[in-house]
């Protein structure tokens, strides 16, 4: 019996649409269907980058990701940033580089990205509101039954569990397991963090600061370290550096989040700076001595009430210096998958053929995007992962 389709793509987000586009290019006559659980295509793309869609970053390396670095590096080489820029230009979307290195469409509208991807999917049947609950081999064993639809090959591009209202509710993991794959523990990444009630940080809601954050074990060993903008909020902490460090705090299971509000300084240099300022101007306060190096609201909150430098005892001065470069922030939990931008964990890369994204557990199956055990930093990296792996999966499923 002839199957309904040559290729069925489960999930029509960034990776799934890319797979559909390149499958169609590779095999123009193939019958391809893309099935998505959401009522509208591209929901997660549309909310990304504040509604502007941070398509990629000007420099993307394996070091920007958590996962098997050698495998990630190999996959990124198959579709570089320059190739991605050219691909989007070909689809009518010109990209611009901002000072941070992030690349956005010149329209500053994520809708431009979604519309371009959908135009490039011409010839692909796209079904919305189509949540796939099962994928199984047919009796003929040469095709798959995807909730009553038969297809020769299947691409799973369902995403992870982040922002489930967009359709990525974790169902893809069950589908992968049912076809022989394992799935590592999954947890929120690029997610805001909550601080215990009554902490001084709550008084700083709306204030941002350049900070260096680190996650440390009880032994003091540093598990991860990032620098960037941190935003104090009514619930706790957010901002790029918090999102980057969050998955490491979650994974640490009880690690301590430490902050330096003077990331270019050390305890010794700050202490020496305060000693020198006290000598020059004994009436100066710590806040006035450090004015311009960090927001005064932050300095006031971290330091607390302090006398003029000239009257500070050595122990108090050193306590202040230490607090400015090494303050413990009492995180209670992350904000959960509803607010996470990506999912950490998933199907191990060792279970796919890196040249085609073909499953090593089920012939005719391909996997791409966030369902895999790889997650990147904030800044367009996860989209680059989606474009690269989606391209390979689409070409592989089409029998490149």
What does this 3D model show about the protein?
This protein has two domains: 5-188 and 337-397, FAD/NAD(P)-binding domain (3-Layer(bba) Sandwich); 192-335, Elongation Factor Tu (Ef-tu), domain 3. The chain has helices at 14-26, 43-47, 69-77, 81-90, 110-120, 171-178, 240-252, 267-280, 286-289, 296-303, 314-325, 381-397; strands at 5-10, 32-35, 56-57, 65-66, 95-97, 102-105, 125-127, 135-137, 144-146, 149-156, 187-189, 193-195, 208-216, 222-232, 236-238, 256-260, 327-329, 331-334, 342-344, 352-353, 358-359, 365-367, 375-376. The chain is α+β, with helices and mostly antiparallel strands. Strands 1, 2, 7, 8, 9, 10 and 22 form a seven-stranded mixed sheet that branches.
For the largest beta-sheet, the strand count, sense and barrel status come to: 7 strands, mixed
Rg measurement, Å: 25 Å
Determine the CATH topology of the largest domain: FAD/NAD(P)-binding domain
Share of helical residues: 25-40%
Number of helices: 12
Q: What structural class do the secondary elements suggest? A: alpha+beta
Question: Can you tell me the residue ranges where pLDDT is under 50 for at least 5 consecutive residues?
Answer: none
CATH superfamily of the largest domain: FAD/NAD(P)-binding domain
- Binned strand content: 15-25%
What's the number of extended β-strand segments?
Answer: 23
CATH domain class name of the largest domain: Alpha Beta
Apparent shape: elongated
What CATH architecture of the largest domain do you see?
A: 3-Layer(bba) Sandwich
How many structural units, i.e. domains? 2
The CA-CA distance between the termini, in Å, is 24 Å
Overall mean pLDDT: 95
